[in-house]
Write a structure and sequence with these properties.
Length: 152
Amino acid sequence: MTAAALAVALAAGLAGAGWWLRRRYVTVTIDGESMLPTYRPGERLLVRRVAAASLRSGQVVVLSGFGHRRPAGPPAPEPAGGPRWIIKRVAAAPGDPIPRDTVAALRGAPGTRVPDGRVVVLGDNPPRSLDSRQAGYLTTDRLLGVVLRRLR
């Protein structure tokens, strides 16, 4: 194999690895106080894209937002350049018992388990979080992924 062919093969391999990493992992930046004290505004997080079936209670997840409402006050301005993501902790995954005692919006929900295709999520800072306490279930098709770690 010539040096030029080796360089092309290496470049193609690196491009393929980069494509795979971007499809599997994404970074997000915290913009808000709903997850204080765990995560602070401005912190960047590494997120792994996952299937909803792999969700477990206690995991921190990134989902598409609630239509840009703030927990108190007027609607937030529409973000420029794409979807608005929210970061919340999974309180109950599909098949888990419905957490009626902590999620007022689900007190009258039928059944005893979170239905397939639904998830219950809560912010770590309840006074500053719009989450399942107000909105009830979120659909799992909103899921981007699970937070792996902070990036420095």
